[in-house]
Write a structure and sequence with these properties.
elongated; 22 helices; alpha+beta; Glutaredoxin; 3 domains; FAD/NAD(P)-binding domain; Arc Repressor Mutant, subunit A; eight-stranded mixed sheet; six-stranded mixed sheet
Length: about 650
């Protein structure tokens, strides 16, 4: 079988490489006379990146050009922070770099340049040859149209498509700016007006270059020509109220290399093929640039169509399966792009918390098996500065790991330390008492606790971090637990004063939360939720932290207070559900770390049923293999974490 690809952009060349790697005879036809490197840069989703990783000769990410982007910061032009959060890693890549990378993997003699598509020659309704405007003819058994958004192949198959009106335009440029990259190495920075459809963003593409873009509502300005000077003047005019960094980027940019793009799309086609001709990439579907989905979709299309052609002998079946797999995903991207565009054009109608990250979402699959029994409700009263709550983490984490299918855990803040004024709880009435209490706890338990905070920089109250936890819950209950763990580590392990907003902001970001939103919620909704927790503490007369209240579906309850051995938790659960089956704790240690992103040596030993010495040997071996990273304090206590490259 001979495959003729029409279009030598990212979709076409990627498909050619994949087919060639499967021993398919393939030829690529490109309308330009040279490698088509027009365009500046783009962001690539993990789905597209996985295809590129297959191409990289060493199979590693460093074989692919570009810069990893894992942080998104959205601000107003006055520098007010609206969003600050982690991203699933994307790759920012210059188009020239990725095209050259791909072309290096494909035989040059199988690339025919200077061929602009004209029409097909048919025999019994099937194409047998592609004819080009220069008179060249390329015969084949199967034809793939990868000739972009203005696809001539698509037009021959389905006629003209109805492009949506261009309501937004985008100016894009690439600028050498090592200083800016140094301080924004992995960050997607964006400024977005609150009043009008206008935004400016910049993203590093290497150690010394950034790609920047300006998106604007066409109702704001109609540019008379696309000359470099006209584009520059437009940028200066539109961004007059933006911060100095934007002015600097525009001032230093060479507008001879910048482009003005028309943001448009069209409805999903009823099919991506006719007979033995199929479309991929922008020729098949086009989403607005707000999603950064185009390049990723081109690569995934190439992979999916290749897999189906290799799997199915019948071309019609292969093409139908391809549409079945890709059409729903593409439809989501088209819908998302239009949704973001409409909100972009009317920004004053949307609250800050409702703003979406302008990127396609990472897909997750939930394979959890639902239990036959109704879960036991566990109401857990805790506090960010409660040392016993920290010490009991191994038991609580093991309970979650072994009986997760039966447990529904609700976290409630206990209000341990309102302030030191007239404070008296057990033997503690001053920060010095807290130091002594923590020091004794550290001697009696293996969880790392460093009490120096109570001498060097004592916390005035546990209320600020408690309110921050409630703010985290407003966003995501699972990530809120990760956030609580992170501020616990900052306090007990790193001796940091977790009432400070800068630390709460950092912990929120590191936990996958929107740190900017968390800081806003601290002043409003989160305080109301915290007050509700304190009311519940009073109503239930909770005087000991931690306190665990187990309740079954018949409202039967059992209570545990303070430090407990693991068997106490397990016995209560089995009293409620005698035939409960515990999940076997895996010996695949990366699975344990994926469940719990950070673990002390004590926790790892307890969770995996190893002695402390055995756990240390295992963890150090994984560290030597660079599977784990570690953070040590005083060269004796360690927090272990799975290396991000193994996530």
């Amino acid at each position: 079988m001979k495959v003729v690809i029409i279009g030598g952009g990212i979709a076409g060349i990627s498909c050619g490489i994949l087919l060639k790697n499967n021993n398919v005879d393939v030829v690529i036809n490109e309308r330009e006379n040279e490698i088509p490197i027009k365009g500046n840069a783009f962001l690539m989703h993990a789905d597209g990146l996985s295809v590129l990783k297959e191409f990289a000769t060493d199979g590693k990410i460093n074989g692919i050009p570009g810069k990893v982007i894992d942080t998104f910061i959205l601000k107003r032009p006055d520098e007010t922070e609206i969003k600050y959060l982690k991203l699933e890693p994307w790759q920012s890549i210059k188009r020239k770099d990725i095209i050259e990378f791909l072309y290096s993997l494909f035989p040059t003699e199988q690339i025919k340049t200077g061929r602009s598509f004209s029409h097909f020659i048919y025999k019994e309704d099937k194409a047998v040859a592609a004819v080009f405007q220069n008179g060249d003819v390329e015969e084949g058994d199967l034809f793939i149209g990868a000739d972009g958004s203005n696809s001539a192949v698509r037009k021959e198959l389905f006629g003209d498509v109805n492009f949506m009106n261009t309501e937004v335009k985008e100016i894009v440029g690439v600028l050498s700016h090592p200083y800016l990259v140094k301080f924004n190495a992995n960050v997607f920075n964006k400024y977005h007006s609150k009043e009008i459809g206008l935004s400016f963003g910049y993203i590093p593409t290497s150690d010394d270059e950034i790609v920047w873009y300006l998106q604007y509502d066409t109702a704001l300005h109609q540019i008379e020509n696309n000359s470099p000077e006209a584009i520059k003047n437009l940028c200066i005019s539109l961004t007059k109220d933006f911060p100095s960094i934007v002015h600097q980027i525009i001032k230093l940019n060479d507008f001879n290399t910048s482009y003005l793009w028309h943001a448009r799309d069209f409805d999903l086609l009823p099919s991506f093929h006719k007979n033995n001709i199929v479309l991929i990439g922008d020729a098949a579907h086009l989403a607005l640039p707000f999603t950064s989905a185009g390049t990723t979709n081109a690569l995934v299309d190439a992979k999916v169509i290749t897999e189906n052609l290799v799997t199915y002998d019948n071309i019609e079946t292969a093409f139908s399966k391809y549409y079945e797999q890709r059409a729903p995903v593409v439809a989501e991207h088209v819908t998302l792009g239009r949704e973001i565009k409409n909100k972009f054009l009317h920004p004053n109608k949307e609250e800050d918390d409702e703003l979406k990250v302008p990127l396609i979402a990472h897909k997750t699959v939930n394979n959890q098996v639902r239990p036959k029994h109704k879960k036991i409700h566990l109401l857990y009263f805790t506090d960010p500065v409660c040392s016993t709550c920290w010490i009991i983490q191994p038991q609580l984490r093991k309970l979650k790991l072994e009986y997760e299918n039966y447990l529904e855990i609700e976290y409630c803040m206990g209000g341990l330390l309102p302030s030191w004024e007239n404070y008296k709880r057990g033997s503690i009435s001053t920060p010095s008492d807290a130091f002594e209490y923590w020091e004794n706890a550290a001697k009696n338990h293996e969880m790392p606790i460093f009490p120096d905070i109570w001498k060097n920089n004592p916390l005035p109250s546990s209320y600020p971090p408690s309110i921050a936890f409630k703010a985290a819950q407003l966003q995501d209950t699972d990530k809120a637990i990760i956030f609580l763990r992170r501020i616990n580590e900052m306090l007990f392990f790193e001796n940091k004063n977790i009432v400070e907003n800068v630390l709460l902001h950092r912990a929120a970001f590191e936990s996958g939360l929107d740190a900017a939103r968390l800081m806003r919620d601290l002043e409003g909704k989160a305080q109301e939720l915290f007050e509700a927790d304190l009311t519940l503490v009073k109503e239930l007369s909770i005087s000991t932290l931690p306190t665990f209240i187990f309740t079954d579906r018949y409202n039967n309850s059992k209570i545990l207070k303070g430090f407990q051995e693991y068997e106490s938790f397990e016995n209560i659960l089995l009293d409620f559900i005698p035939d409960a089956k515990k999940s076997l704790i895996t010996k695949r240690y990366n699975k344990v770390f994926k469940k719990y992103p950070t673990l002390t040596t004590t926790e790892f030993a307890f969770l995996t049923d190893n002695s402390t010495s055995q756990a240390e040997c295992i963890l150090n071996r994984l560290f030597q293999k660079k599977i784990l990273i570690k953070h040590s304090v005083k060269k004796e206590e360690i927090i272990w974490k799975l290396n991000s490259i193994y996530n």
